[in-house]
Each structure stands twice: as structure tokens, then as C-alpha cells.
């Protein structure tokens, strides 16, 4: 038997449609109940053996108030009169509910009170004017089990999110009444991403709850001190972080210096190593690379053909632009980086082309210059720091910037279409160039890889991960590849060995570090018996980490970088 089309199997009805489905299903069940009950009551109370279909007709006539007469002469028992009256009253009530919940919203476009859709909130997060892809952040919070209310000044956006099942209301985040509707009295955190209105929003919140934690997101790093002055406890600049990471990846491709590593305890670190096209590892299986024997580092995971393998199959073949997830001491990781990066070394004369000198570009430029590299900047506006004024999507402009001889190009323009075009042009001019791209739409990530990018970060994904880290103590190793790194208490595994815990088999997460109760890092041994006082560090894809947190009901603790 053929399966259902993918579009049908993946169909997710909006909250309003679900309400209609529940309503209709409930109405059908009520009618069936009344039919059977009425037919039974006639037989037991009045001694009349009537067809079930005749009883069904009576119930429909009564509930729709269209009238009846054929049965009125056979009622005599008081309970029959009471039962018929109940059917009549419920029929009228159902008529009003049908009009309010279905007819008016579906056919007249009447406004729906979004507040009525909210469940009681406590210990939740209030999000104000999230200007990125709201669904990505809200899905992140929902998967982490964090309750929330999103406030949007756009009724259209609020209704769209609410109809898709998200807890969203319409209102101004500068009005105290809006926060009262969002139950600020029982909230634990307020997140504001209101742009120029951030200051007003923070002052409103502080006037109502001086003790509540406030997280502010901004695309202007210069606003950090101002936002902290007016009351923000934490200020996040996703564009700055994104630019910094892109540049770190670009420099790391040519430098033996370790960058962007995460300390797991002691001398053990975890990091990503993209494999360049010219690396000697390309074309070999994981087993044939003999990484552990040659360098002392361990390959704990790898992105192969777009799929994360934890651990990778020993027979999996390393391809160009494969990303290895490795752990080990600093010396071991340095040894391994020699095999993954291009044969030429990073020098102070290495040229990097930077397209777009906004917040992302400035952050990337600072990292490159600090590393001693030469950077040529392109921007459509003639502003300080711009070397070539022009469109990065122009072949002539890229040639003028020296793309043909550059080691890497960082594309940080806000327009995804231009970013994709620039990626293709850069690859055509210099097939050996490393291409690192920022995209504003998470769905454009795969398009960028298809266009020839070596590394891609999306603003919505990075922003959501930064917020998740602040709220739950999670750390992010690679937002683009959706790898997560979390440290959790080992309480659920007390008395069990690591091998018997079957963490990987049950969730897909891999334990890469164990910290004993006294703070000492111990070796990852399958025979280690958990006392319950340890903390374990796990790595996995989005779905795997979410599955682990739900299955074992634990919360991440802080993870040092």
C-alpha cells in the first residue's frame, strides 16, 4: 500500500483548526450520547421500544430547535421531561458556541482575543518584539521545556504565531498593561529585542519588577553600556558573535593556533576541525587516517555528507569540507590540525576578503587584524574602513579586491540573495578559496552550502542558541551544524556504570567527559560507576540533546569555554 504524500504526513494544523476539530468531534460524541441515552430512557421509563434512528432524528430536531411532535405524546415520567429539557438547553448553548468559535472567526474575520488562548503562566520567560525568526527561538524554548509569552506590537504577527500554536499576544512592550497580561508578576526573565525601543522596554520592566532578570539583544555593540546602565543584566550581540566566529573559522583554516575550543576539564579540549580540500585525510576512511595513533586526539564525531555521526563509522570516508569533532590535549589537537588544514601556512601576508562592513564585518575584521592577516573590505557605502566601495555580487568588484589570490572570503551582507551570488562568484574566480557566509534566513543555510560555501552561520540560529545558553546554561560549538554541548548532573545514573547507562543507545548523545564530585576530570571509561555526584559532558545534535534532557529530566549546568 502506498504511503501518504509527504505534504499530508507533515501537515500541522493551526491552533484554530485544532480547536474546530476538537469542537466537531465533541459535538458528534455528544449527539451520539444523547441518541443512545434517549433511546434507552424511552424503553426503561416509558416502555417504548423505538428505532435508534428515530431517536437520532429527535435529538437533531431538539438540539437545532427545528421542532418535533412525534414523541411529545409519549412522555410521562418526570425524568424524561428533565432529560428533554437538558437536550434543549444544551442545543441552544452549542448554537452560541458555534457562532462565536467557528462562524465569526472563519467567515467574518473578527478579532480573536489572543490572551484567552494563554494557559496560566508561572516561572516563565517574557519575550518582547523578537525581530529575528521567532519560530526558531520559540521552538528552542519549547523543546527545552521553558514556558514563555511573546509580546508583539504587530497584531498580524501575533495572530500568525498564535494560530501556529505559539504563546503570543498583541501589545506594546512599553505599556505596563501588556506586561500584566503576560503575567510579569510570576515571570523569571524578560528578553527584549525591540531595537531602539529596548531602553523604553527595560525601564518599563524595571518599574514593575526591579528584581527580574533582563536580557537585551542588540545589533549595535556600542549600545551594550547604555542598555546595562538602564537595567539590562545581560546584553547579547548576535551579529558580533557571528562575525567573530566566521573570522575565527577563516583564520583557523590557515593557522596552527587552536581557536574556538571548549575546555572539558584538565588539559582536555573539544573543537571542530573543517577538513580542507587539499588535506591528506581526504579520500581516506576514518580507520585509515589513524588519527589517534598519529596525533593522540580522538575523533568523537563528524559531519559526513550533511549527517552528524556520533561516533563516525570507521569505514566512513573523509570528504572535502568534512567537519571533524575532536577531543584531546592541546598538543594533540595542534598535531591533528596540521593534517586538516591546507598545506600552506598562515602568514602575516595571508589575504582575506571581507564583504559587508556592518556589525558582522567589523567583528570579523578585528579578529583577522589581531591575527596578523591582511584584510580587504568591500561595502556598498563609503564609510571608514572600507577599501572598495561596490556590490559584493559584482565580479569586477571581487576581482579588484583580489579574490583570485585570497585565502578566504567572509560574506557578511544582510541580503541573502547577494550573499549566495557572491558565494558562487568567489568560487568561480578562485576554486581553492575558503568561503564563509552569514545568512539572515535559517532556510538559506543549505542553499549556501549548495552554492559552494565551506561554513555557514544563520543569524536566527545563533541568536536562539545564545538565548538558550543564558536561560539553561547550554553551550554551542557549531550553531550552523546544530551540534550541542551540554554538561549535566549524573544523578539519574547513580549506581550504574557508564556502559550500562546506554545513554548513546537511548538518546544519540555521546559522553565525552566526566567530572567527579571533587571537581577532578576522569577518563571516560565504560566501567565507571556513577555515584550521582559527578557531572557529565555530552555532545549531540539538536534532537539528541533535547531527547536526553526530556528522558532523564535534568537541566544543563554552566559549561566553561
TrEMBL record:
PROSITE patterns for the chain: RCK_C, RCK_N
MF GO annotations: monoatomic cation transmembrane transporter activity
Gene Ontology biological process: potassium ion transport
Pfam families per the UniProt record, alphabetical: TrkA_C, TrkA_N
Start and end residues of each RCK N-terminal domain: 122-236
Domain of life: Archaea
Domain RCK C-terminal span(s) in chain numbering: 259-342, 472-554
Keywords on record: Membrane, Transmembrane, Transmembrane helix
Ranges that cross the membrane: 20-41, 79-99
Record's protein name: TrkA family potassium uptake protein
Native source species: Haloferax marinum
Amino acid at each position: 500500500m502506498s504511503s501518504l504524500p509527504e505534504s499530508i504526513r507533515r501537515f500541522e494544523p493551526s491552533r484554530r483548526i485544532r480547536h474546530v476539530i476538537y469542537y466537531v468531534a465533541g459535538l458528534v460524541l455528544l449527539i451520539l450520547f444523547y441518541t443512545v441515552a434517549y433511546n434507552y430512557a424511552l424503553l426503561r421509563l416509558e416502555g417504548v421500544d423505538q428505532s435508534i434512528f428515530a431517536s437520532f432524528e429527535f435529538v437533531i430536531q431538539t438540539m437545532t430547535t427545528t421542532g418535533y411532535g412525534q414523541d411529545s405524546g409519549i412522555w410521562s415520567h418526570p425524568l424524561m421531561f428533565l432529560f428533554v429539557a437538558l437536550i434543549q438547553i444544551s442545543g441552544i448553548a452549542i448554537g452560541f458556541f458555534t457562532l462565536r468559535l467557528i462562524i465569526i472567526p472563519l467567515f467574518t474575520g473578527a478579532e480573536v482575543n489572543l490572551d484567552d488562548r494563554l494557559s496560566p503562566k508561572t516561572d516563565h520567560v517574557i519575550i518582547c518584539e523578537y525581530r529575528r525568526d521567532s519560530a526558531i527561538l520559540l521552538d528552542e524554548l519549547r523543546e527545552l521545556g521553558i514556558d514563555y509569552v511573546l509580546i508583539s506590537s504587530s497584531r498580524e504577527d501575533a495572530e500568525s504565531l498564535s494560530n501556529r500554536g505559539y504563546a503570543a499576544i498583541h501589545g506594546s512592550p512599553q505599556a505596563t498593561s501588556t506586561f500584566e497580561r503576560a503575567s510579569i508578576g510570576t515571570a523569571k526573565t524578560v528578553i527584549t529585542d525591540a531595537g531602539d525601543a529596548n531602553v523604553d522596554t527595560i525601564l518599563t520592566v524595571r518599574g514593575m519588577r526591579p528584581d527580574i532578570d533582563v536580557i537585551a539583544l542588540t545589533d549595535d555593540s556600542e549600545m551594550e553600556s547604555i542598555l546595562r546602565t538602564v537595567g539590562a543584566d545581560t546584553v547579547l550581540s548576535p551579529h558580533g558573535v557571528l562575525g567573530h566566529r566566521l573570522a575565527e573559522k577563516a583564520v583557523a583554516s590557515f593557522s596552527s593556533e587552536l581557536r574556538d575550543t571548549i575546555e572539558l576539564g584538565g588539559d582536555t579540549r573539544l573543537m571542530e576541525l573543517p577538513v580542507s580540500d587539499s588535506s591528506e585525510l581526504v579520500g581516506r576512511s576514518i580507520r585509515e587516517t589513524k588519527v589517534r595513533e598519529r596525533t593522540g586526539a580522538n575523533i568523537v564525531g563528524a559531519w559526513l555528507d550533511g549527517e552528524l555521526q556520533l561516533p563516525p563509522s570507521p569505514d566512513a570516508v573523509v570528504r572535502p569540507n568534512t567537519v571533524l569533532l575532536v577531543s584531546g590535549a592541546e598538543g594533540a589537537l595542534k598535531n591533528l590540525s596540521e593534517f586538516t588544514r591546507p598545506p600552506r601556512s598562515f602568514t602575516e601576508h595571508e589575504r582575506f576578503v571581507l564583504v559587508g562592513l556592518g556589525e558582522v564585518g567589523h567583528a570579523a575584521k578585528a579578529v583577522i587584524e589581531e591575527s596578523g592577516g591582511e584584510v580587504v573590505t568591500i561595502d556598498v557605502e563609503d564609510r571608514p574602513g572600507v577599501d572598495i566601495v561596490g556590490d559584493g555580487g559584482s565580479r569586477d568588484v571581487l576581482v579588484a579586491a583580489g579574490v583570485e589570490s585570497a585565502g578566504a572570503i567572509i560574506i557578511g551582507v544582510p541580503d541573502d540573495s547577494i550573499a549566495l551570488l557572491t558565494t558562487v562568484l568567489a568560487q568561480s574566480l578562485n576554486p581553492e578559496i575558503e568561503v564563509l557566509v552569514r545568512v539572515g534566513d535559517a532556510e538559506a543555510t543549505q542553499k549556501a552550502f549548495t552554492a559552494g560555501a565551506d561554513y555557514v552561520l544563520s543569524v536566527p540560529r545563533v541568536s536562539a542558541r545564545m538565548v538558550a545558553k543564558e536561560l539553561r546554561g547550554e553551550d554551542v560549538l557549531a550553531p550552523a551544524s546544530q551540534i550541542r554541548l551540554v554538561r549535566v548532573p549524573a544523578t539519574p545514573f547513580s549506581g550504574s556504570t557508564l556502559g550500562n547507562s546506554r545513554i548513546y543507545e537511548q538518546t544519540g548523545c555521546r559522553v565525552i567527559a566526566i567530572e567527579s564530585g571533587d571537581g577532578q576530570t576522569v577518563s571516560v571509561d565504560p566501567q565507571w560507576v556513577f555515584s550521582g555526584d559527578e557531572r557529565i559532558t555530552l555532545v549531540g545534535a539538536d534532537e539528541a540533546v533535547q531527547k536526553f534532557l526530556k528522558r532523564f529530566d535534568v537541566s544543563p549546568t554552566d559549561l566553561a569555554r
